[in-house]
Structure formats: C-alpha cells, structure tokens
Amino acid sequence: MLLRSFSFASACAVFGVLASCDRGGTADPERPSTTAIRIASFSPAMSATLVDLGCESNIVARSPWCTDVAKSLPVVGDFRDFDAERILLVSPSHIVLQPPLSGINPALESFAKAQGIALVAVQLDRMRDVRQFVSSVAPLASDATRVRARLDAIDAIPLVDVHAPRVVVLVSAEPMLAAGGANYLTDLLPIVHLRNALDAEGWIECSHEALAARDPDLLLGIAEREESVPGLRRALEAIPCRASRSGRIVVVVSPELLRPSTRSIDAMRALQSAIDAVLRTTSEQAP
Questions:
Q1: At a CB cut-off of 8 Å and minimum separation 6, what does 281 contact?
Q2: pTM
C-alpha cells in the first residue's frame, strides 16, 4: 500500500494552481491612496482572494497560473522566481506571494526593499492562513464591508462533526493525489457535513489499496477542467471499497476548490446538493 504525504510545494508540480510556501514574514501594508495601489500577485490563490475583495483593478501583474485576472497582465514571478525588469515596468506598490519552504527569496527581498515595494508573504495551507492574508491586505481594499463579510464567512465555517460521513477527496488521478488532514479542503468539508477519512498532513500520494483501507463513506473528485473528470472518476471507481461499489462517488469541476482563497467557501457550499443527492440515492437503494 502507498500513502505518502506531500507538501504544497510537491503538489504544485502536479497542478500549478496549488503553490506551497513556508510561513514567511507578512508585511503589514500601510494604506496608500487608492490610485497608488498597484499589486503584483505571484500566487493564483491570492489573486482569487484579491479579486473577491474587489481589488481586481489594482492588480497590475501576475504569475503564470493566475486565472482570475486578465491574461493580458504581464507575468512577473511565482513562488520560485521573479523577473526584475518586468516588475520595474509595472511599478507595483505591493507584491503578494507564497514563498517556497526555504522562505522568501533573499534577492526578491533586497530588490523589493531597494524599490520601496511592500512584500506580503503568507502561507496558505489552511483556511486560517487565508484569513491571515485577508487581514494583511485589508488596508488595500476599498470596501471594508466586503472584507468584513469575507472574514466573517471564514469564521463561520463549522467545526468537524465526528459523526459525519467520512470522505476521500481526490484532486489528481495520475498520480493519485488526495487532500490530507492539515489542509484547507479538510477545513472546508464541515460546510457540506463531511469529514476527511485521511489524517496525514498536506497532500497525499496514495494507492487504490491504501484508500480502500480507510473505507470512506463517500468518494469526492475535484477537477480543474472538464477533461480531467473521466480520469478522476475512473480512479475513484477503481478503489475497492463500499463507497465505490455502492456508487457513492461525486466528481465535480471546481477550480475554486483547487486553490485556498475566500472563494473556496462558496465553491464548497455549491457541492451540497450533489453530495446530498448521492448519499440519499444510495441510502434508498440499500437493502
């Protein structure tokens, strides 16, 4: 059997929207005038949250994987590297990023300091980290009510119900990659009245047999694109457990759930009807 934990950095090699980071120093940005706020986002998850907070017009540059902002924005960096010349051309006031496990690139720190650019670096492994990021960039948002609403939505996520059905959440079929315990998706599962069947931290590369041994009540596949759905469904159907044999499988296309952001909360809520339908139907069919 195979059940091996991965950090967010390793998972990033499987699908770029999930970038790992170590908890770096978070800048506490002072609020400049609205017209002076120019944000370079090195993180797709952070771009999604910034757009959700109403800051889309302030984003002037992006990472290669940022899909929530205009493709015409110049690509200036990601969690591994940055392009100093392109950054200078867009003159950002702030750079938001998830640095790698080794921490913030010293060259980026020196460059930002020399150019007077504020760095906002936050780990986004859990929903509490998303909350920290929202609090950090709140001074940059023009709508304080909207920021407060997003913070309240995170605070309103229910606690885990120890009696809730257990689920395996698969996000990749090749390799088979599942959400582990210390993971933002695990934090979100109580919204749809589920709990994670896996307790290892981070992202877990696993085998069909290892997942079968956990005997989950439900199998959930989350795809970024429609073309990934058949592969995820086949992988879940091949797990030799009661959930697959009973048809308790839900596969959805939800890119918002593949990056930890404020939008992930609504994306998880949107799964409730599909999950309820599968659990209800299979319950009715049981002898």
A1: 247
A2: 0.88
